[in-house]
Amino acid sequence: MHLVSFFGKKESELKRVISFPFWSEHPDFELDTVIIKSRNELIERNLNFKIDILIAITDEMDIFSSENVHNTLRQFSRTAVIVIGKDTSYSTVREYYINGIFDYLIDPIDEKKLEKSLLRLYEDIGENYIVNNLKLKADALIDNIFLGGGEEKIIIGEIFDQIYTDWNNNLINCQTVTDKAKTYIYETLIARKPWLEKFLYKPDFYHHLGFTVKRRDDLEYMWLIDFRFASSMVKKYQMIDDKLVYRIGKYVVVHVDEKLSLDEVSKGVYLNPSYISHIFKKITNMSFVNFITEVKIDRAKVLLRDKNIRINEVAYTLSFANQEYFTKIFKKKVGVTPVEYQQMLFEKYICTHIQ
Predict the structure, then answer these.
(1) Per the CATH hierarchy, to which homologous superfamily does domain 2-124 belong?
(2) Cis omega (within 30 of 0) on the bond before 108?
């Protein structure tokens, strides 16, 4: 829960803001209806209740004037501030932003603009914390994944220990930050090895506003499943990083959703088909045709994570001749049909993400 407090001498205007209907639509925000009117009250209130978001209506003489805001915000480095003021001059608004506020809105406040500002702020919560406080542990997990995994559980436990300690075990704040950290790790993985994106189900690594609050154990379990799977994909396909087959392997992964054959790949990478077959088998100990099939089936597993997708759509997306042929190849490689695999995923894996 994100505690929202209000500061200013315009009590009637702040009470109007508190009465805005949109608050009831966003239960993640908890309103502190005690209006703060002085700097001392603000300090005391923040020490006692740890304000997450402060909405301040300012005038030219109070502590939230652009001249004084820097010193005030320095005391509340973890409190995001939205200032509401009448001064629309470029120099004043610029000073507010330079001194650290999140947003400046024009008085009298427009309900929709405040709502948009708060939702943007909600999305930003935790990002600076990850870069400044959590990066070493997050990077340790990333490095371990690129080494093929094995230490995911230990590192994930350390990440969660730090987050839940730093954010005082506040369930919503901790979940918001862990989700942001998960997205950071995923995006870093993809930035370093773009081909990995084809084998990971992106929605598993991004949170959405209005999420259901989960227990820490459930969140850690989901992290462990998702990042162990990432490790397994890195380990399985790390051979395409070999300089002799990199162009070949990368072409197959990038074009996995297209029709692929030895001849088509040879044209795409400007290499002789016989050379491709020879060098790929030598370096990877896998036939090139089998590699294409492996890539397409692993890609199919990702597409099947969408419980609303039809099997014939997956077959079409991956350029199989027809659904029957796709089902035959999938069952040969995986041991179950695509329909059975999708049902198994929904029962044993996807449910852990939507509980």
Answers:
(1) Response regulator (3.40.50.2300)
(2) yes
- Kindly report the backbone phi and psi dihedral angles of residue 57, in degrees, each rounded to the nearest multiple of 5, phi listed first: -95, 125
Residues 345-354: contacts with CB under 8 Å, at least 24 apart: 345/304, 345/305, 345/307, 346/307, 349/225, 350/305, 350/307, 352/218, 352/221, 352/222, 352/225, 353/203, 353/204, 353/222
- Break the chain into its structural domains and give their ranges: 2-124, 127-238, 242-354
Q: Which of 52, 51, 87 lies closest to 67 in space, CA to CA?
A: 87
Strands 80-85 and 53-57: parallel
CATH of 242-354 among 1.10.10.60, 3.40.1260.20, 2.40.440.10, 1.10.260.40: 1.10.10.60
Return the SS3 of 150.
Answer: coil
Query: How many CA atoms are closer than 13 Å to the CA of 142, on its beta-carbon side?
Result: 20
- In a 13 Å sphere around the CA of 126, the CA atoms on its Cβ side amount to 24
Paired with 55 in beta bridges are 6, 82
Q: Confidence band (pLDDT; 50, 70, 90) for 355?
A: very low
* pLDDT tier, 292 (very low <50, low <70, confident <90, very high otherwise): very high
17-56 core/surface letters (b: 16 or more CB in 10 A; e: else):
beeeeebeeeebbeebeebbbebeebeebbeeeebbbbbb
pTM of the model: 0.68
Asked if 87 contacts 60 with a C-beta cutoff of 8 angstroms, the reply is yes
Tokens of 299: 């890609």
pLDDT-derived band at 39, boundaries 50, 70, 90:
confident
Distances (CA, A) of 142 to 79, 202, 253: 30, 16, 21
